[in-house]
Amino acid sequence: MVVETIISGGTVVTATGETDASIAINDGKIVGIGTDETLPDATETIDASGLLVMPGAIDPHVHIDDMFSIDSYESATGAAAVGGTTSYIDFAWQAWDGEMGIWDEDGTLLEGVRRKQEKGENALVDYSLHGAIAREDPDVFDEIPDVINAGVTSFKMFTAYEFGLSNGFMNRAIQRIAEEDAVGVFHTEDPSICDSLTEQFKEEGKGDPEWYPKSRPDYAEAMAAEDAARMALEAGMKYYGIHTTCRKAADILEYFQDDGSMIRAETCTHYCTLDDSIFEEMGNLPMIAPPIRKPDDVEAMFEHLHNGCLSVVSTDHCAYRLDQKQVENWWDSAFGANALQVSLPVFYDEAVNRRGYTPSFVVQVMSTNPADTFGLSQKGTLETGTDADIVLMDPDETYVITADDNVSKAEFSIYEGRTVTGRVKKTLVRGEVVAEDGEVVGKPGYGKFIEREIPDWNTH
Ligand SMILES: [Zn+2]
């Protein structure tokens, strides 16, 4: 037998350890892991000597081509490919007629799924979707089985913004999602506290960006997380808290995890690597909701990743132009920042080089845990029979991050000028090289929509 590709001579990194081995790939799948002598011959050999061979990163939290992001599927997936992210989960929005929305009339969740799948026809890497429930219309409950059948097995709910849900409606949604054994995904910030402080700061003329994090305090995040996690626990629903930023919120989730229930959560690369001194440095550019917090909260993210309370690191990627950010008062600025292209190297550098974690830890929180949490059974690891979604990373190459290199349409980087050691050299999706040395080489349209299974959380 002759296989298509062998990745030869690298150090294979999985969530459980590292070994020097080669990987044989055929028809998009890993068909063998061993030495060059034990593996079949290949049409093409990729030399990985001196490189780490890791599963591609899986980013379960991104915003592409909707009201929160100027990226197209092509530009965002290009950034993902260059940065070593081989799959991501975007949001399929239920249309709502409102100020922040982009629709003239209400729509269904299933229409939201179809709309994003059309945009996804230009994807370079694989993607999936969370259904985002944006209106308090009980009709959505009847749609849930159909949405699950379409391969969308998680449902996002917000406590804040005009599409935020009241606890009452959210509680009903949680019960419905629990009946299907699906996953609830939560943005938690107490809206009345955030809105009230924002109004106060507006009246007091506190428009400098340093006031932004004070308008959305850590305790408001912890309060809403407590409510949502408690409702999930009552209903027996799988709870996934997105973008945990602070010690107070992580402590609450840890409290609910004590009884062995199904409470999981992520943090993002920026909450692990940046603190609120950045507002003085970069103005509104790093305005993300919830905000980048204090240095002690950065420490708390690593403590809680280490003890497993937080189990995933995502980007919350949103792409913006500079003029959407560079406005006089922070409350007129867009919220969010792009990171798909740099998340893996920035987090790798922070965790491994600056804090002494192993490359396996990075694989665990950026590949294996997101795949396990969201039912991506073919992805997130390097095992015979799984998709050959692979990143070759040079652990010794040092470079400086700059927005000049952005493949995303975003016009800035919150990591501008940051020196990192560890660079993505090649990214393969299902055995095909889609990015090489910082350049996209894959074809738009190669990326596929992944129908996700209902995940089994008892194995974790
Ligand atoms: Zn988000």
TrEMBL record:
Keywords: Hydrolase, Pyrimidine biosynthesis. Pfam families: Amidohydro_1. GO terms for cellular component: cytosol. Residues 52-434 form the Amidohydrolase-related domain. One of its GO terms (biological process) is pyrimidine nucleotide biosynthetic process. InterPro entries: Amidohydro-rel (IPR006680), Metal-dep_hydrolase_composite (IPR011059), Metal_Hydrolase (IPR032466), Metallo-dep_Hydrolases_sf (IPR050378). Its cofactor is Zn(2+). One of its GO terms (molecular function) is hydrolase activity, acting on carbon-nitrogen (but not peptide) bonds, in cyclic amides. Belongs to the metallo-dependent hydrolases superfamily. Hydantoinase/dihydropyrimidinase family. PANTHER family: COLLAPSIN RESPONSE MEDIATOR PROTEIN, HYDRANTOINASE/DIHYDROPYRIMIDINASE FAMILY MEMBER. This is Dihydropyrimidinase. It comes from Haladaptatus pallidirubidus. The gene is hydA.
